[in-house]
Amino acid sequence: MISATLPESFKEKQCNDLLRIGSKNDGGYVISRSSILNTEILVSLGIDNNWSFEKHFLKINSVPCYAFDHSIGAIIFFKNFIKNLVRIDKPKLIFRNLKIYFSYLSFFRSKNIHVKKFVGDVLSKNYISLSEILSNFKTQKIFLKVDIEGDEYRLLDDILKNNNNFSGLIIEFHNCDLNIKKIENFLKSFNLDIINLHANNYTSINKKTRIPLSIEISFGKTKENKEKLNLASLDLNFPNNPSDEDIEINFINEDSI
Question: What number of H helices and E strands is found in the chain?
Fold first, then answer.
């Protein structure tokens, strides 16, 4: 296992109702069950071709789901399937693309909405801001998932402006070694507590500072609980890339980084 370091301010608070939602590897996240049950709308920014998290979430609490991702859609998945039909040497790839296509059609219907909009790229004609998205909902119980490949830093101000509107938050931070202070400032201002933190091993660590380049942070509301936490039962984090070793986080004094 690779050893990495982060400031103590990134350390999780105790939470006794953690669940792994979604895939065992990339696309799955550890969140609080109470956050799920306290949600009225699920907003996902960035889904690519994996909505296992959203699907699992809605099995526990069947709320409307709004997913924003400019890069995918039924037509795109169908074109990928047709393109791979000629690759008779890759039958698994053909079957996978067909499975994704029908899964997309099945999931994004009725109250599950996919919007082909950019959320992070402000220069795109298809851009929509997070504040604009949130202004459409008359609830303070929104669960927000953010995985938009580096553009998450553009959303931090809007998240803080809507600080009281979230039942939970998952956000993946990229290039963390270059943005560690931005992330720290966000953590200090955000209302919810860190309940899980995991390094994404599809990227590595900064060899000098030992800071992981990509981290997934789950936020929720924690309350004092005198019940002893069974740590063995909460081993819910798995490597995003199952073919490579995971990254272990050590929390140290900020002055040491």
Answer: 7, 11
